[in-house]
Design goal:
The structure holds two protein chains of two kinds. By secondary structure, chain A is of the alpha+beta class. Chain A has two domains: 95 residues, no CATH class; 233 residues, Bira Bifunctional Protein, Domain 2 (BirA Bifunctional Protein, domain 2, 2-Layer Sandwich). Chain A contains twelve helices and nine strands. In chain A, the strands form two sheets. In chain A, strands 1-4-5-9-8-7-6 form a seven-stranded mixed sheet, sandwiched between helices. In chain A, 43% of the residues are buried. Chain B is built from 19 helices and 38 strands. In chain B, a hairpin with a 2-residue loop joins strand 32 and strand 33. In chain B, helix 6 packs across helix 9 and helix 13 packs across helix 16. Chain B is elongated, with a radius of gyration of 41 Å. Classes of the chains: A alpha+beta, B alpha+beta. At the A-B interface, helix 5, strand 1, strand 2, strand 4 and strand 5 of A face helix 2, helix 7, helix 10, helix 12 and helix 13 of B.
Chain lengths: 359, 797
């Protein structure tokens, strides 16, 4: 190729390059367009190696022409790089219809613990802050721990108070979390502070306010000089923390053979505000916290000297508490596994626009 | 227990304008729970007694009769539907102009073509439960025309919760309730009106021979033979009161017995006095039969305590009398039994027979043995007013081999105050206790408290019992609350509980699971859908419903039912439950705590995807809760019906076989619910108990390498039959001084991969502690690793 032809070709390459650079919309596109020109096998790159094919006297001129072309290409690249970067900046700064900052974020489903578990954790946290240990006990329990060690011997009429699911293997389904009282005394001795959340079972006909399967949280505190005044203080604290406000309560005599004296702690019904409704059986009060001072016989069953230690125990109705807290009116939904009734819609469905109660 | 306020007025001078609701509230706060207060409001005007003169069927009617009544000189004709009217009976009549709330104002009407003047009142309109439409019959002492005092008919009825007086036999009668009411209102309690004991026991009449075989089963038996009684209505006031407390008036003798039971809590029984001469209290022989007065022949349970007459059974002690010796219309002499029985024995027998009566319910509560004689004294006192010909036919015979010792409890007032956390003076304690019948005497710095007999049967025996009496009258609401002073001590964490809590936290707060609580028994009807029968675990003796006898051995059946329930309303969800499952056996240890997980989603052929999701969740759970990885191994042993034949893996955690992950096969999904055919359901069940020993990995962090490390990717073709686990197992044996880590990157099957093979890509990371790697190092490693891959039988891509 003579030099004149080379010059023509370089001009053509330049024109072609400019067109291709112009059409590049991104830096990457520009980069690949550039390498099609100046790369080893690019249109200009291939010519770079041809310098040795020229006569020595032409080489100076050829070299200059090639260099000039190369520089011109680089200038074009720089120019278009700048163009693209400017365009990117402009695009980034402009508003597009596709971008809606108010659209919900992307997230996995929230999931949810059972309402009873939610309340249970709250109660656990309250008592852990008071230095109570959280214990568990078996749901299939022996007559000894469920009744006898709790001062309810066989044929005691108090057994009527708790209709029992009996098992063919001679054991039973615990009717309350109280069997863990003596289990915990055996495990830890005194002084002792523990709570025992758990499932209990009673052989009862099911309706909107009675279930044969429900949760309680047992509480037990044994120390020197534990008094009724202490029991009242802890019970009030518990309810205030759970409901995050002062709850009206009343304490009255109640009979449970494993405490002496025994109390029923009622709280003002939160559903009707104390005016009387179906949930509180029109009394305005809800029995929520049977409690009492641990009976000396029970302490003895647990191997603790009743002359040295006194204590209080309570059996918080977790299921009832969850109903109060979450406004659940029918206890039966607790064990049916229908997520609509135990999981808040916000945790079950996608982003919600409207959520209305049925009229 | 229903309590009539009119009745209480016999024992306490309650103010005329008594606020019954307020009294009930105070009773609840100091004594026992009142479940409700009801006004019995008849507001009668102008009612009179009237004698039936004649009765005639009213033609053309089904059940109406024309009744001519003597209303005190005059005769009137009325029409009545009362079924058991007889000539000469005395009824309650509402003449024209009279009224009650139930009937309104009474007038004269035409009934079925017959002029009807006034109305014979039935029990219901007077607030007395009777058999359908039955009239109330007045005792012979009432004369026709006699006005019925209206104030007797209006009453307040207080319902006391039976469960709250389980330990208080004294509160199973009006007199005991009155004692508490008197103390609450600070009013005196009137003496109980009874015939003096001397009249009954020192009358020179013959004794009734009484023989008790075992005084432990029957501590006391008192009896009295009474002649000159008979079948007649009880006095109207007694019928009304019984009616108000829910008992149907029957006949004077029966009503007297019921009345005294409702007053004192002591059941009595009247035998036909001509049918027995002697009383023995003994045990039934195994398999013996006995017909109770309700006409039912019963097979007596072992150890049933029986009342016998010359060793022939006449009553089921404490439960029900016998048919043979029942008082009949012609009975003129009765033998009145008033006894005290051992509570557990009565309860055992009543439970075995399924025959719980008003009497047995009271005997179960440990009655005061003093009451046997008192009840007889009261019976005679009341009966004398009704039966003018009443004559005693025996001396009060009383067999009481080992009289109970009086109980005395010493209390330390300082301890009482400390136990209550409240200041109460010794005087206040004494005042409270005395008001409810205790005897209080100072003894040095302590107080000696004599327990009255009616509180001495299992109710009061220790200091704490006395403190309760003091505290409830102080008023629990008056005790200031004060947080306890505690002894600090350390409790080791309950790992099992902590893990359960962490499990739910990890699954429900981070992985989108919804926790469910399901019943711990299986449902046979649902098991049928799962193509299985109930497993042999542990059966309930008294299931909640038939077909729900068996305790669950797995959480999954119930969770699948819950999944099926939710598929109606959702397109996909994750469920979890932490709960107890059971294995056959009779020990408390035959239960474990399991974790069940379900991932369900609408869609076809999504099993693999759901399986992978669930496995990922199990891995996340294992890391988060146990701090150790979960690995998946070929499933061993029998699979449950809800496991897929192939798509099942065992979960291994720290070398412990902890559970199973699988998907529900299509065939079973169809069986469960045809709609589930277009769903995928993956499940996992993990035994949390066996993981007790699982240890968290050492999570110490390492410093950043001083010299740069390099990552090299390798893809290799492996036979599709070699699982990921197998390949990993082989790679794990590779040893090279520069190797730091091998990670799995991806698996590929498809274009450019030959049939029957799979391409797996791994990333190796290499480095040296003392220098930067050179090209030669990289080449050497590449070659060594390639050689190793070859020795594994794989081909590098």
């Amino acid at each position: 190729m003579n030099v004149a032809d080379l010059r023509d070709q370089l001009a053509a390459i330049q024109t072609e390059a400019e067109a291709s650079f112009k059409s590049a919309k991104t830096v990457d596109e520009l980069r690949s367009a550039r390498s099609q020109v100046v790369g080893k096998s690019g249109s200009l790159g291939k010519l770079m190696g041809t310098i040795k094919d020229y006569a020595p006297q032409e080489r100076g001129e050829v070299g200059k022409a090639l260099n000039a072309a190369n520089q011109a290409i680089q200038q074009l690249v720089d120019q278009h790089t700048q163009r693209i970067e400017q365009a990117d900046l402009a695009a980034d700064a402009s508003q597009t219809a596709a971008f809606d900052p108010t659209l919900p974020g992307k997230r996995p489903p929230l999931g949810s613990v059972h309402p009873v578990t939610a309340v249970q954790w709250q109660v656990e946290a309250i008592f852990e802050r008071l230095g109570f240990t959280v214990e568990a006990g078996p749901e299939m329990e022996s007559d000894y721990y469920n009744f006898e060690a709790l001062n309810i011997p066989a044929m005691h009429p108090a057994r009527d108070m708790q209709d029992t699911f009996w098992l063919k293997n001679g054991l039973l389904l615990r009717t309350h979390t109280s069997p863990v009282q003596v289990r915990a005394m055996e495990k830890f001795g005194a002084p002792l502070r523990c709570i025992v959340p758990g499932r209990c079972f009673r052989y009862e006909t099911i309706d909107a306010s009675h279930e044969n399967t429900f949760h309680q949280c047992e509480g037990l505190m044994i120390d020197r000089n534990v008094s009724i005044a202490n029991l009242i203080a802890v019970m009030r604290l518990l309810l205030r923390e759970v409901f995050e406000r002062d709850v009206k309560v009343r304490l009255r005599p109640g009979y449970f053979p494993f405490v002496e004296p025994g109390f029923e702690l009622d709280m003002s019904c939160l559903i009707c505000g104390g005016d009387g409704c179906a949930t509180c059986k029109k009394s305005g009060w809800l029995e929520i916290l049977p409690c009492g001072m641990v009976h000396p016989n029970v302490l003895k069953f647990g191997g603790i000297d009743p002359h040295e230690y006194t204590g209080f125990a309570f059996g918080l109705g977790l299921t009832r508490l969850a109903m109060m807290k979450y406004g659940i009116r029918d206890i039966r939904v607790m064990n049916q596994g229908d997520l609509r009734s135990i999981v808040h819609p916000s945790r079950l469905n996608g982003p919600t626009v409207v959520e209305r109660d049925r009229c | 227990m229903l309590i009539s306020v009119n009745w209480l007025r016999d024992f306490v001078d309650l103010p005329g304008n008594l606020d019954v609701a307020a009294l009930a509230e105070r009773f609840t706060m100091t004594c026992a729970e009142v479940e409700g207060v009801e006004r019995v409001s008849v507001e009668a005007k102008g009612l009179i007694a009237a004698r039936v003169v004649s009765l005639a069927e009213l033609p053309g009617t089904r059940n109406l009769r024309k009744v001519v009544l003597d209303v005190g000189g005059d005769e009137v004709t009325t029409v009545s539907a009362a079924p058991v009217l007889r000539v000469d009976q005395c009824v309650i009549f509402a003449p024209p102009g009279a009224r009650t709330n139930a009937t309104g104002k009474i007038g004269t009407a035409q009934v079925a073509g017959q002029d009807s003047t006034g109305m014979i009142l039935d029990g219901a309109s007077l607030g007395i439960p009777m058999a359908e439409d039955d009239a109330i019959f007045c005792p012979p002492s009432m004369v026709p025309g006699e006005a019925i005092p209206p104030e007797m008919l209006d009453d307040w009825v207080i319902e006391v919760d039976n469960k709250s007086i389980t330990h208080r036999p004294d509160l199973w009668g009006h007199y005991g309730i009155a004692r508490e009411v008197a103390a609450i209102l600070d009013l005196p309690l009137k003496a109980y009106q009874i015939t003096p004991l001397a009249e009954l026991s020192q009358n020179g009449l013959p004794e009734i021979p009484i023989e008790i075989d075992d005084a432990a089963r029957c501590p006391r038996y008192s009896g009295l033979r009474i002649a000159g009684v008979g079948h007649q209505p009880a006095p109207l006031w007694m019928q009304v009161r019984l009616g108000h407390v829910g008992m149907r008036p029957i006949d004077c003798l029966v009503d007297l017995s019921n009345y005294i039971m409702a007053e004192l809590g002591q059941p009595t029984h009247a035998f036909d006095g001509d049918k027995l001469t002697k009383i023995e209290v003994g045990l039934a022989k195994p398999g013996e039969k006995f017909t109770t007065l309700d006409g039912v022949e019963r097979t007596l349970p072992d150890g049933a305590l029986m009342i016998q007459n010359k060793r022939h059974h006449v009553a089921l002690a404490g439960i029900m009398g016998g048919l043979e010796t029942e008082v009949s219309d012609g009975t003129q002499t009765i033998l009145l039994e008033s006894a005290n029985f051992e509570p557990a024995g009565i309860r055992r027998c009543a439970t075995a027979l399924g025959l719980r009566t008003e009497a047995s319910a009271r005997f179960e509560k440990s009655l005061d043995p003093v009451n046997t004689v008192q009840a007889i004294q009261r019976f005679v006192y009341l009966a004398q007013q009704e039966f003018p010909n009443l004559e005693l036919a025996s001396t009060l015979s009383d067999c009481y081999p080992k009289p109970a010792d009086p109980i005395e409890v010493e209390i330390d007032p300082t301890f009482v105050r400390r136990f209550m956390g409240h200041e109460v003076s010794n005087e206040e304690m004494a005042h409270i206790l005395t008001a409810i019948g205790f005897d209080v005497q100072p003894a040095g710095s302590k107080l000696k408290v004599g327990v009255p007999s009616y509180r001495a049967t299992k109710d009061i025996g220790i200091e704490a019992d006395i403190i309760e009496e003091v505290a409830r009258y102080v008023g629990y609401d008056n005790i200031d609350s004060r947080l306890p002073d505690v002894t600090v001590r350390h409790f080791p964490p309950n790992t099992q509980h902590v893990r359960e809590r962490e499990t739910l936290r990890a699954l429900c707060r981070a992985l989108g699971y919804c926790e469910v609580h399901l019943y711990i028994w299986l449902d046979d009807a649902w098991l049928k859908h799962l193509n299985v029968t109930a497993p042999s675990t542990i059966d309930l003796r008294n299931p909640a419903a038939s077909g729900q006898e068996t305790l669950r051995h797995s959480l999954i059946p119930g969770m699948l039912a819950a999944a099926d329930r939710n598929r109606l309303h959702l397109d996909g969800f994750k469920l979890c439950e932490v709960g107890s499952v059971f294995t056959a056996g009779s020990d408390v240890s035959n239960q474990r705590r399991n974790l069940g997980m379900i991932v369900a989603q609408r869609g076809k052929n999504i099993d693999d995807e759901l399986f992978a999701t669930l496995k990922g969740d199990v891995e996340t759970w294992a890391w988060r809760v146990l701090g150790t990885p979960a690995t998946f191994v070929p499933h061993e042993g029998a699979s449950p019906a809800w496991a897929h034949e192939h798509k099942t893996a065992g979960v291994s955690i720290g070398g412990i076989a902890a559970g199973t992950v699988s998907v529900v096969p299509l065939a079973l999904r169809r069986e469960m619910d045809e709609h589930l055919a277009s769903w995928g359901i993956a499940w996992a069940e993990i035994d949390l108990g066996v993981l007790a020993s699982a240890k968290a990995e050492d999570l110490k962090l390492k410093p950043v390498p001083e010299h740069p490390e390099v990552e090299l990717d390798f893809s290799m073709l492996v036979p599709a039959t070699d699982t990921y686990g197998t390949v990993n197992g082989k790679l794990a044996t590779f040893v090279h001084p520069l190797l730091r880590r091998i990670n799995y990157v991806t698996a590929y099957e498809g274009k450019s991969v030959p049939q029957g093979k799979r391409s797996l890509t791994y990333r190796t990371r290499i480095g040296a502690a003392d220098r930067t790697l050179t090209d030669a190092d990289l080449t050497e490693f590449r070659n060594t690793f390639a050689d190793f891959v070859k020795t594994c039988g794989y081909e590098q891509r």
